[in-house]
Design brief:
The protein is mostly helical and about 70 residues long. It has a domain at about 1-40. Helices cover about 70% and strands about 0% of the residues. It contains two helices and no strands. It is elongated and about 65 Å long.
Amino acid sequence: MQKSRREFAKTAALITAGAAVAGTTVMAATNKGASVQDANNNGVVVGSSRKKEILYKKTAAWEEFYKFAK
């Protein structure tokens, strides 16, 4: 019984290591294309959404936070 558990653990470790190597290889291969694309547009991603992006809305809670943060 112990031997079969050990064999299973060895097999699982080998499969996991192989998957990690394969995943790293795929990530490295796909990153090469992304770096060329980032060089062209300085890393800015341009979307096609029609919604206006609101990053900050002036509220009493934010004013109180900024007052104490200084």
